[in-house]
Design goal:
The chain has 141 residues and is mainly beta. Helices cover 15% and strands 45% of the residues. Strands 1, 2, 3, 4, 5, 6, 7, 8, 9, 10 and 11 form an eleven-stranded mixed beta sheet that branches. The two termini are 18 Å apart.
Amino acid sequence: MSEFLVRGWNVAIPEVDIGDDIFVVQDDNGTLRRVQVKTSSCTFRQNSFSGQFKIPIWQLKKIADVLVHFIFIVRINETWTKPLIIRQDFLLSYFTDYKLGSEHHGNLNLYFKYTQNKVECSGLDFTKYTSNFTDFPIIIN
């Protein structure tokens, strides 16, 4: 939430939890972004580490007027990785077109593998989504 505030966006926590963790709003023009934050502790591997995430498939497929931005972040030792920020429609496309992750009991399970300069899931490169604040430009100096 603090990263959005520093960028000049207003942040609110919904009173009723139906899938969105936070709402991010650009006050001067009313632009609204829905955000779902997914966290994981890391699993160390040889020359890498990974984080496991679970998304209800109904949530991924439920496309509304305002898309959800999924943020994936892994706790490694005493710090967090840079966030992977992926818009819902892009994530859904990876799931349907490229068989991203695995389905289990109505959830999409994702295993992101982090190496020195790359983030992968299901053999696909997700590095470009690292700290991808494209839809959240800085609006204050």
